[in-house]
Amino acid sequence: MGFSDQLGRFRKDNPAPLYLQLQQLIRDGIGSNVLGQGDAIPPERDLAIEYDVSRITVRKAIGGLVEEGLLTRRRGAGTFVAGRVEKSFSKLSSFTEDMAARGRKASSSWISRAPGQVNPEEAMMLGLSPGAPVLRFARIRYADDEPMALEFSTIAGYCLSSVDAVKDSLYGALDKVGNRPVRALQRLRAVPFGTEHAKMLGVDPGHAGLLIERRAFLRDGRPVEVTRSYYRGDAYDFVAELSDI
Question: Is the pLDDT of residue 153 over 70?
Fold first, then answer.
């Protein structure tokens, strides 16, 4: 079955530009679950032949859907229907817990993990004296083997015995020794990915990202964690419940 057999073809009486018509066919296919999360979109050449349009028209249509977050490009693999994740701002949880709650498998690849001495910015954020020990973790986070985020964390040295204490989940390791944070302050802002970050996440440089800066605290009020996480803008929705109470 061809792609057009699934989604339909252009209507002859539709005056809209062809790239917008193709976008709408794909958008409707996603909305009606004809195309599901992770489904592959045919290559530009195949779509151009099937719909009798130029590759430029196909590229413009696909590019617009990528910007909307409905499709995602994976370097060297192709274009796929995006699987977006909702992350609540009202609950303090780890990436591993977020993925498990959505039936997805979380995994990581380490960029680096090492002990060190606190730098001036970390000392201020964590309330530590100059030269105090810290543990630093940097990794790529995956959901069902798809790169979703970059995570750079600094933990006060007294909270864990060593960097090797962290296997799959940082918060899981902290919980085991009674040092899991119970509250946090978070700041969210939009950022474009630079070349290095984009390469690690399999997206193009300049791709829209979301930077979350987190400062987390123990029950006794001591700050324990400073984390900067860079999330793919096409894969995440951040949700907050508001009330006037």
Answer: yes
Rounded to an integer, the average pLDDT of 99-114 is 84
- The burial class, CB within 10 Å (0-12 / 13-18 / 19+), for 134 is buried
Question: Quick one: which of 152, 156, 171, 167 has its CA closest to 115?
Answer: 156
Q: What is the mean pLDDT of residues 157-181?
A: 92
Please state the length of the chain.
Answer: 245
Q: Do 226 and 150 meet the contact criterion of CB atoms below 8 Å apart?
A: no
Residue 27 makes CB contacts below 8 A (sequence gap 6+) with 65, 70
All structural domains of the chain, each given as residue ranges with its CATH number in brackets, are: 3-81 (1.10.10.10), 85-239 (3.40.1410.10)
At 54-102, the pLDDT tens digits run: 999 999 999 888 877 778 787 777 888 876 665 666 677 778 877 776 6
CA 207 – CA 155 distance, rounded (Å): 29
Distance CA 70, CA 139 (A): 26
